[in-house]
Design goal:
By secondary structure, this protein is mainly alpha-helical. The protein is built from 13 helices and two strands. The protein folds into two domains: 24-284, Ferritin; 292-330. 63% of the residues lie in helices and 2% in strands. It binds benzoyl coenzyme A. Benzoyl coenzyme A binds next to helix 2, helix 6 and helix 9.
Length: 331
């Protein structure tokens, strides 16, 4: 909470534009590293940017359940199955924290889901790739959750309080996910020749899409400059991508696996790994809906939403019943 300058309780940010703060004052508050809370006045652009990013993030979490969920029934042991079920449930939980954070900005959860379903809002490109073998589950944990941690740890310091706080718990759980993925791959890469080949094949397929998770390069990222000025993003897409590469190369060595990039080399002068050029045309195609699994992911998501209508109706009926009872008790 940055000051005493609140909108009236209950009106919150749905009316934020009516209570647009002075932009310079707001910027000073951000620059002083204060947190913005739901009832604080905020520029409409700030609110919209947050709703866009948080909703996209929430959608990614729930769509992200699909590629891994597909392997729950095929996990190679009871222990692996229990761990994978817990991980997929964690992703559902992350979605819930994030939809709740978006609601503090005046967004309506049902409307956000409608926007996901009709393509007005996005979800992460990474979940439009298929999980072909068990090694893909290890690789998603290691690389995809690893990339998510690099991207999301700075979000724990996001200027918007509810998003930052949600990220603290999400990041703790992502760390566990990353370690379980590494452990699956370690087992495979120290197993039979066939298991090692399966692990290598999965890493070869997921490496470049994982680098694309960080978004377009800085000079092609229309939102970065403003999001960074507002303290929503703390680092640029390219800075985070570099951090991920630097962290991951030694881990690949520890696994005894290679990364599919002949240009990957330590640069003494920069103190970072150099890496090859990313084919961003692939990222843009996947974002446009033309990735290998976009259609399948959306069809499954819409079907699950329709089939879950009875559960949402029941929850509303239950809440209404209890609200009526409380009202009666008060009367
Ligand atoms: N995929 O100006 P830019 C997870 C869009 S969940 C799709 O750089 P921004 C996990 C971008 O939205 C992973 N779209 O944008 C879950 C923008 O389009 P709009 C999700 C992408 O927002 C389960 C346009 O391209 N993580 O990790 O400044 C299991 C221009 O980009 C992508 C988050 O959502 C992409 N990869 O930066 C395991 C984290 N990249 O909206 C793991 C929070 C870019 O203007 N989000 N676009 O139409 C962020 O940090 C930022 O939103 C991004 C993009 C870095 C993703």
């Amino acid at each position: 909470m940055y000051g005493n300058d609140f909108t009236a309780p209950g009106t919150q940010t749905a009316t934020a534009s009516a209570a647009e703060p002075d932009l310079e004052d707001f910027q000073r508050i951000i620059d002083a590293d204060s947190r913005v809370e739901p009832r604080d006045r905020m520029p409409e652009g700030y609110r919209k940017t947050l709703v866009r990013q948080i909703a996209q993030h929430a959608h990614s979490e729930i769509i992200g359940m699909q590629p891994e969920g597909a392997w729950i029934s095929r996990a190679p042991s009871l222990r692996r199955k229990a761990i994978l079920m817990a991980k997929v449930q964690d992703e559902a939980g992350h979605g819930l924290y994030l939809y709740a954070a978006a609601e503090t900005l005046g967004a309506d959860r049902a409307e956000l889901l409608d926007m996901l379903h009709d393509g007005r809002q996005k979800y992460s490109s990474i979940f439009n790739y298929p999980t072909l073998t068990w090694a893909d589950i290890g690789t998603i944990g290691w690389l995809v959750d690893g990339a998510a941690i690099v991207n999301q740890v700075p979000l724990c310091r996001c200027s918007y309080g509810p998003y930052a706080r949600a990220m603290i718990r999400v990041c703790k759980e992502e760390s566990f996910h990353q370690r379980q993925g590494f452990e699956i791959l370690h087992t495979l890469s120290h197993g039979t020749e066939a298991q090692k080949a399966m692990a290598q094949d999965a890493v070869d397929r997921w490496w470049w899409p994982s680098l694309m998770m960080f978004g377009p390069s800085d000079d092609q990222s229309p939102n970065s400059a403003q999001s960074m000025a507002w303290g929503i993003k703390r680092f640029s897409n390219d800075e985070l991508r570099q951090r991920f590469v630097d962290m991951t190369v030694p881990q690949a060595e520890a696994l005894g696996l290679t990364l599919p990039d002949p240009d990957l080399a330590w640069n003494e002068e920069r103190g970072h790994y150099d890496f090859g050029e990313i084919d961003f045309s692939e990222l843009f195609e996947v974002i446009k809906g033309n990735g290998p699994c976009n259609a399948e992911r959306m069809a499954h998501r819409v079907r699950a939403h329709e089939q879950g209508a009875w559960a949402r109706d029941a929850a509303v009926a239950y809440a209404d019943k209890h609200a009526a009872r409380r009202a009666e008790a008060v009367a």
